[in-house]
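Hi Q.,

Before the meeting this afternoon, I wanted you to have the 2-(butylsulfanyl)adenosine prediction in hand. No need to reply - just skim if you have a minute. The sequence and ligand are here:
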Amino acid sequence: MEKAQAYIRIQELKDIINEANRRYYVENSPVLSDYEFDMLLKELEALEKEHPELRTDDSPTQKVGSDLKTSPAKVSGKEFEQFPHRYPMLSLGNSYDITEVQAFADRASKGIGNAFTYSCELKFDGTAICLTYRNGKLVRALTRGDGTIGDDVTANVRNISNIPQELKTPAGFFPTLLQPKPWPEEFEIRGEIYMPWPAFDRLNEQRIKDEEAPFANPRNAASGSLKLIDSRMVAERGLECTLYHILGEDLPFQTHDQALKAAQSWGLPVSDKRKICKTIEEIEDFINHWDSERKTLLFATDGIVIKINELPYQEELGYTAKFPRWAVAYKFKAEQALTRLLSIDYQVGRTGAVTPVANLEPVQLSGTVVKRASLHNADQMQQLDIHIGDYVYVEKGGEIIPKITAVELSKRGTDVVLPHFPETCPDCGTKLIRDDREAKSFCPNQISCPTQIKGRLVHFLSRKAMNVIAGDATVDQLYNKALVWNVADFYELTKEHLLTLEGWKERSAERFLKSLDESRKVPFERVLYALGIRYVGETTAKSLAKHFGSIDSLAKASIEELLATDDIGQVIAESVYDFLREDSNIDTIERLKAAGLKFEADAAQQKLSGKLDGKTIVISGNFSVSRDEIKSLIIAHGGKSSGSISSKTTYLLAGEKPGPEKIRKAESLGVERIDEQKFREMIEI
Ligand code: IVH
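Predicted structure with the ligand bound:
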């Protein structure tokens, strides 16, 4: 490829890969499958090889993905203290077929020049952890972080049941002067924290009940759980750990296998699903065995790791910036299942989008029985040339709902039927319109399409919106009795109305009315989210509430003004603009205002300036006002207030009697220290 063209494609690939890394490691909500990701990375590597002058140190080919929050404002949750890794925590080179494993073996063989063996292990699909044991006691647990610095999650790791706080002495060990304890005085052991399938299914079931987004896969669930605020909650998540790599000074082992056996004898969790192989054929047998047997495991594995077993040879081969040269991962293809397509439902969502959903003959896939799969849109149905009665392949990708990836044409019978994407709404019969930007069809009848009305009502009451205790069945009852059609109708309900509903008694009616009454205190940002404006999720609603401060200023905003808000692009800006100019919506908002809902942000939430945009500030000591007031000021001027100092901290704002530990850490990391007066000058109030 020409240099100029390569330059453009490299920039593009870096952007896609960096964003995919952030979604995977920080937000735990992947946007690409591992395979898609690896293919993009390989393309970038090839281009950088062709044009080495275009390779920069910050390229994703030169560093491992980071689980540290690079954009803290966008991610809620706890800030962990961060510590440097004693040895960098690297990733593994990936391969997808045996010829690539063969190439790895050839390179190793050339580098070593002697006979050696391989240790083959499962590749656990979880989140990496580094444990430090000193004098037999667990003293610290760090996440991989960016490979150089990790988050300290020791308190959470202490709640994982199979990680010992203290090591045990194996039977038959006799202390001597030279070796008083069976384990080295200090060592690190690395491994993976993962969530077994049963715990994962239980957690997601609960999250769906609580109206929280389910985790896409056990890896995301494990990594999200490891970073929970409340350490006690970690214990309930059913996480487990497996360890696979010991590091330390002057360790007494000759082989990796010996080291793992010793760790196991001290009570550390080490997998027994390992094999020492001598030839590539043996490695291939191990791969094939687990590619089919993995379906029987209670946890997710996404491949096999092949390591040079002899430690002196590992040392000889060494590392690249990103990977060890003494190990490689062989990744399994995503697990697929073949089953029959029975029918297709066309579901209308709350915003009117019509989505085709496939009903399948039930089939076992990655630990669960799959009965339904997403078909996304009409274009995809056409691309797949899918017919009712066809045999189709289903795969679990990044999303929780499996997708249909292909049709097995060789199994197509003569009785298959071409599905017809409806032209009218399956619920209200209105002619659908197509939105080409999203390749989706919408029912434009927002006012009287029953599914859309009920969807809006359910959304309005939901936990993250107005948080009114009511299920879908209550909404159905109220709608069917024509008591509630518009969200504002809820606030005109009386006990008498509710007692006309089947099964309702005094107590349930009073509870419902009380919950509605309490919803009047819900802050503006959630009321805005509750209105159900297309594309306005929780985060967007927060940004809008913070930026505009009230529904009246939001309603006056031009498209350009809307575009000046954080995280808001053309599509959202237009959607908000149109929504607030529609008569029926204006009328609803007026009625909700009259009912006493909050349409203004609390003073503390209003953005006063952008003077601290992008700055992270840690406060310590006493100030002329309360610490909470200082924190509100930081946020109101666009900054972020954080509890602990890390390399990402911009300032340590020190009042009277600041904590000595914070001062020391700020100094060691070169974080600038400011006092209250300087802070007030910065925000000029
Ligand atoms: S050894 C220097 N062994 O997979 C890296 N890693 O995709 C040594 N992983 O970063 C890692 N199972 O978090 C090793 N049996 C295993 C593994 C394993 C899972 C993870 C690990 C690594 C990642 C690379």
